[in-house]
Amino acid sequence: MNAVRGRFAARTVRVKAPGKVNVSLNVGPLRPDGYHSVASVYLAVSLYEEVAATSTENGGISVSISPDSALDLDGVDIPLDERNLAYRAAAIMADVSEKPTGVHLEITKRVPVAGGMGGGSADAAATLLACDALWNSGLSREELAHLAAELGADVPFSLLGGTAVGLGVGDELSPALAKAQMDWVLVCADYGLSTPEVFRTLDRLREAEGVTAQEPSAVDPKILQALRSGDPDALSRVLVNDLQRASIDLAPQLRDVIGMGESCGALAGLVSGSGPTIALLAHSPESADGLAEELRHLGHNALAVHGPVPGARIISDTLL
Ligand code: ATP
Fold first, then answer.
1. Is the pTM of this model over 0.90?
2. 154 is catalytic
3. Ligand 1, atom nearest to 195 Cα
4. All domains of the chain, ordered by start, with CATH?
5. pLDDT tens digits for 44-95?
6. C-alpha 121 – ligand 1 centre gap (Å)
């Protein structure tokens, strides 16, 4: 607890953490433990969640959400209790910290909710880092990554950022060398898709076809090559997402969004993670801006972003 002349002095640590696009996502069969093995290439993109963690005198954890003006949260249900991933991240940090205070987490949301971009995971990653600083826990990045994996498969990546290959359930990460920036347009839907339901749909479609999926053990090296060389044309030829057909089965209009993006000049498009956000690959920052503008004219919620960008980092630390 901070004490200034015997009085509690609140402190706010503000952290930003990126959302992600899966540039490739191979999904294995349903495992006996209810999970699916994946082999994926994650790319952190320049759409950030922000968490301001403020110490409170009275103990406990509270959460509030303030949507960025570009994100419409009307009718979107985000729990503020222990079902919120950021809340759970703070609870885990309080357990491993010697002198935790209470904390209020104010989340500025920019990543579409249930959009397949790991927004809740980014909130959790940001909260781990913010509480580590707030409570002087002194955990290493490796220790934080360990706690992150307990919270969810996508949380370690938001902490790490950049480009990484994810195996296991997506949490066994190896950073990949890909410094060249790629430009994307995200087309955000005004509805969400439940990740477990998308996986269940994929299982059902495969079963109906009598297809037995292989356990994925590696990603296509061509994807890493294209990312390393920064060649968007080469990347556009190898983008893959096994979940895409399941997302389209649940929301058939996604096929039209990809088609529209490609007919407006995108090199290629795919569903991001479990969707429904669509990621369209562009040639350059200028073509991404132009494409986003054109899609907005057509009534879509489109946003130009780039990646890779760094993982969760502290942007301010203030005594109030
Ligand atoms: P992923 O791609 O990691 O599976 P997502 O990006 O599709 O997830 P999220 O926005 O992370 O989806 O959230 C999915 C659901 O989790 C939401 O519908 C909401 O009920 C719940 N949730 C829990 N914590 C959060 C949070 N901090 N922000 C948003 N949703 C949260």
1. yes
2. yes
3. 4
4. 11-177+309-319 (3.30.230.10), 182-307 (3.30.70.890)
5. 999 999 999 999 998 899 999 987 767 777 778 899 999 999 999 999 999 9
6. 7
